Amino acid sequence: QKEVEQDPGPLSVPEGAIVSLNCTYSNSAFQYFMWYRQYSRKGPELLMYTYSSGNKEDGRFTAQVDKSSKYISLFIRDSQPSDSATYLCASRRGGSNYKLTFGKGTLLTVNP
Amino acid sequence: DADVTQTPRNRITKTGKRIMLECSQTKGHDRMYWYRQDPGLGLRLIYYSFDVKDINKGEISDGYSVSRQAQAKFSLSLESAIPNQTALYFCATSDYMAGSTDTQYFGPGTRLTVL
Asked: Does A48 touch chain B (CB under 8 A)?
């Protein structure tokens, strides 16, 4: 079992829909939780991050972590065709010796 | 100019050939990484380096080797390429600070095809 599991989709929604992307993780020591966005033929880029549990909002995007259930979520409100991309969740432990563990990514298409 | 560059961007080669993929960064980061990405398998870590003198194997290092020539340069070699090494390869860098996420910054990728 991978430490970070993510449903690869694909997920297709109409423009304006609310999108929910989810991951689960197994390592209780994970403290940092990130979402990367990858457009076609590009490298991933950091979209948002959260430290420990809680919510973080940035415009139309909300990242949520529930450490009790080991669940990571990204919500996109009023989705736009420009949001079409692969979204990868990632987690890491605190401290200098640990690297990121990525989920497999979910391919999202927002249809006009 | 891009902060993380990869060369070549595309490469087609034949089974058994030696291939080198190069990564350079101008971000001044100590940490560098090599990943491969395959459909349905996501990003998989091949090797990583936390500083110039540090090299570590990732989850799929067999068939690959790396060289950290300088803080800014990290090369990935396939000593004898095989078809199942056909994939999209990404280099990434990060700059760890205590209490930070150690955000990774990715290059544009190299699409490698082994015939």
From this structure: no
Check if the beta carbon of residue A24 is closer than 8 Å to that of residue A72. Answer: yes
From residue A31, give the alpha-carbon distance in Å to each of A48, A66, A98, B60, B100.
14, 11, 11, 25, 10
Residue of A nearest to B33 (CA): A99
**DSSP assignment, residue B80?**
S
A64 alpha-carbon distance from chain centroid: 9
The tens-digit pLDDT sequence of chain A (112 residues) is 679 999 888 999 999 999 999 999 999 999 999 999 999 989 999 999 998 888 999 999 999 999 999 999 999 999 999 999 999 999 998 888 788 999 999 999 999 9
Contact state of B42 with A103 under an 8 Å Cβ cutoff:
yes
